[in-house]
Amino acid sequence: xxxxVPAAIAAALTSPELAAVVDLxxxxxxxxxxxxAVMVHGQHGxxxxxxxxxxxxxxxxxxxxxxxxxxxxxxxxxxxxxSPENRRNAYPEPxxxxxxxxxxxxxxxxxxxxxxxxxxxxxxxxxxxxxxxLDVIQSRAPFLLSxxxxxxxxxxxxxxxxxxVAPTLLELAGVPVPNGLDGTAYPTGESxxxxxxxxxxxxxxxxxxxxxxxxxxxxxxxxxxGDGLALTGGAVAEFPSVTLCNHxxxxxxxxxxxxxxxxxxxxxxARGERINANDESTWHRSAEWLRPDVSTVFEMLxxxxxxxxxxxxxxxxxxxxxxxxxxxxxxxxxxxxVSALLPPAEQSPYLGESRHLADHxxxxxxxxxxxxxxxxxxxxxxxxxxxxxxxxATVVTDAGHHAGGPRSPIARDSLRDADRRLGVFxxxxxxxxxxxxxxxxxTADHGFEKADEAATGSWKSALADVCERAGxxxxxxxxxxVYLNVR
Length: 487
Ligand SMILES: [Zn+2]
Description:
This protein is α/β, with parallel strands linked by helices. It is built from 15 helices and 22 strands. The protein has an eight-stranded mixed β-sheet with strand order 9-12-8-19-11-18-16-17. A hairpin with a 3-residue loop joins strand 21 and strand 22. The protein is globular and about 65 Å long.
């Protein structure tokens, strides 16, 4: 397709009337030499991005000129300027991430629209706290290593990428990292623990997590940090910085253009269907959408160590795990919502503030996470059968950050609740005498920024107008994924 229509959409959606709503609009193009490139439009200019982070400014000011993954550190500088406007913001590795995003022939949209960090869009599912953007804060997940084989170096001003999680887990498990992954292992020492535990706290805000741990408010995380290390730049999420795209990137070591899980909701041209992959009713089905030539960390572990058991708790991307929550869900024939199978939230011993149960998502997440802890303890009941690799995802941290945004009471309480559950597991490992043999990796799938409740509005009618003028049909999924010439 000619790039005329995407360019017209990008120009219309970056008009001054939409400045509070649209930060960036991007679409793929082909260079004269046949190489793939990405055009990125902002309010003040247009840039062409090519592999190797090459930026060729087309007009005005490069909208992704600042790319420092350590921007807004130390944390005080983020707090002083939350949800910054484009020219003050930073966008780590924009070419690599956007090129991956546009690499799937069937599922990548023709155009992607990125919200401003402060855009508030409750009418299409937006919350007080949001993520999904290319920018540094929404893309910054924590990255903490602790325990056997990890030196206690404390806070380090470095960063990795979410695609580095799988290779790091494999290396910690003594497995050679396969060639051809997008990610690489974070270097640790030569010594190895017997067990590896990966913790994904969904949406846990990197800097706030580290600040609360340092202030003594998250004792379990603080105890991990006490003999471990954390990167203050965290792990940079793949684009879009949404949940299922990044759970999959963490657990396969490749970006969305290769694993195929472009977002939580996307369209598949080959199937002719919309895929909603991150829903209470579909999250046990992700293996159906994962590209078959991509391996999960569980499959890579088994290929190298066939005897090694792996456990995957409350995680959609479970293909190849010996035991997983999603296997149980697939086996249990249930008619009602998953929550009907879960312990009641009111009786949760890890819930710090019962008023948060008024938030439907927080309530459901409390049930899911209590159930997750029970499964972890069950899988670790017999030390002789303890899993070589445990992956344990926590949901409530996403619920708390959506409900109030980073630093809000409900976001911080969600971190405290998650910390209590982690504390129970650490105490259990101590009681088995196994703690010294375990290496921990704590991460997340994305960061969070707070919306400005005055920054409302929508680019939907502008998109409809330009597509009507151009005479093209389109789908708008996500929202922000624009597929042209499909109904
Ligand atoms: Zn998430």
